[in-house]
Amino acid sequence: MRILIVEDDKQTALFILKGLRQEGFAVDHAADGEDGLHLVLTEPYDAAVIDIMPPKLDGLTLIDKMRQNSSEIPVIVLSAKSSVDDRIKGLQAGGDDYLVKPFAFSELVARIHALIRRATRAGEPTTLSVGNFKMDLARRKVFRKDIEIELQPKEFALLEYLLRNTGRVVSKTMIMEHVWDYNFDPRTSVVESRICRLRDKIDRPFGKNLIHTIRGAGYVLEEKD
């Protein structure tokens, strides 16, 4: 999943960026509202975390412009202001959630996951599965034939994207857009190498492939006879 952070405070931004990347998210950062608006209207994000007072364009105006441009990306508003009136203003501007600084990082992650579930109409279920393979989103664990498989955060993120698109062919570009940030060179072989690692972990030991290459198109995760 790909997240945009709009935050001008360097320490706060680094704290969020480092933590989310360790959790397996692809994360882009804008230090002011104008850059944030440009990114959110041109890149495919799953959610955005927007500070209420970045320079050049304040957070509430940024969110309002997003909504005017038909952007439905779910937004968490970050603010040091905790009054009810301030929370209402953030939500009325088009924010979906409001988090007061300082905050626990674990709470931010939980809120991001909750927003994405609601935005994708995933509802309450916290597992994704195909055949004898299951991903537990709440515990960040994966199993095949009830055997737990250890994955690195980026492997988990890639596999989650494939699972959310079960039966649908996804191109390398689509994967790069949702699993890696915009700084990655699209000519790199990072997608192919990660797919190979996933196959080594979830396919080859079990004798039946779930990840399939569609020549010239991309990859699809599905159980075939």
Q: How would you classify the helix and strand content by structural class?
A: alpha/beta
How is the CATH topology of the largest domain named?
Answer: Rossmann fold
Which range best describes the helical content: under 10%, 10-25%, 25-40%, 40-55%, 55-70% or over 70%? 40-55%
pLDDT averaged residue by residue: 87
Determine Rg (CA atoms, Å).
19 Å
Strand content: 15-25%
Helix and strand pattern? EHEHEHEHEHEEEEHHHEE
Number of helices: 8
List unreliable stretches of 5+ residues.
Answer: none
Reported CATH architecture of the largest domain: 3-Layer(aba) Sandwich
Question: Total domains, how many?
Answer: 2
Tell how many strands the DSSP assignment holds.
11
Describe the largest sheet.
5 strands, parallel
Shape: elongated
Q: What would you give as the CATH superfamily of the largest domain?
A: Response regulator
Structure description:
It is built from eight helices and eleven strands. With 225 residues, the protein is of the alpha/beta class. Strand 8 (141-144) and strand 9 form a beta hairpin. The model has no long low-confidence stretch (mean pLDDT 87).
Main features:
225 residues; five-stranded parallel beta sheet; Arc Repressor Mutant, subunit A; elongated; single chain; Rossmann fold; 40% helix; 11 strands; alpha/beta; four-stranded antiparallel beta sheet
